[in-house]
Amino acid sequence: MAHIQGVSAETAGQDVQLLYDYTRQGLAGITDHEPRGMLEPLEMYAHAPELLKAIAGLEMATAQLNRLEERLNVLAQLKAATLTSCEYCIDLGSQIARRSGLSDEQLLALPAYRSSPLFTDVEKLVLDYAVGMSRTPGRARRQTIGAPGRGPAGGAHARYRAGEHARALQPGAGDRRGGF
Q1: Is the model's pTM score more than 0.90?
Q2: Do both 127 and 48 map to the same domain?
Q3: CA–CA separation, 165 vs 1, rounded Å?
């Protein structure tokens, strides 16, 4: 349970309610599940509605980026989620990873990806990058900065996606598993 009570849909303003509805529909589309309890991070940010709108705008803009192959994007996000121990992100990310074609064997091999034959050299490079970006302070190796063959824009996309998991661990959040 969260230490800080989030802003419920019933008490939120109209803009925040619309954002909740949009997010709920998007999560249901990604996971094929009703996103019960998955709005908790938004409910926390809703205490500062302008901040919530800005974060939503950044998320929507980032979702439209296609500089990285979906599989690489998913791998980076899921690895970062595991390193920051974000149960919400691991749960949701695992579901998305399966839908993106990752096998259960690959998901189980993620902690030891460096020695696993289940990942390509490019996937290992992206995973190395996610590991570097998840450290405090972030330390990605220079050779990973351009997100393998994707140029600076691909690197920016990877940096944002890998770094968002550390940001998601805002104070006040409790158990945020989504049940996938």
Answers
A1: no
A2: no
A3: 19
Q: What is the tally of structural domains in the chain? A: 2
Alpha-carbon span 85 to 79, nearest angstrom: 10
* Domain end among 46, 63, 80: 63
Q: What residues make up the domain containing 22?
A: 14-63
Q: How far apart are CA 8 and CA 180, in angstroms?
A: 23
pLDDT for 93-114, tens place per residue?
A: 898 899 889 999 999 999 999 9
Q: Helices marked H in the chain — which ranges?
A: 14-31, 40-45, 49-63, 70-83, 87-99, 104-109, 121-134, 151-167
162 in the same domain as 75: yes
Q: How far apart are CA 50 and CA 54, in angstroms?
A: 6
Whether 8 is in a domain gets the answer no
User: Exposed, middle or buried by CB within 10 Å (0-12, 13-18, 19+), for 141?
Assistant: exposed
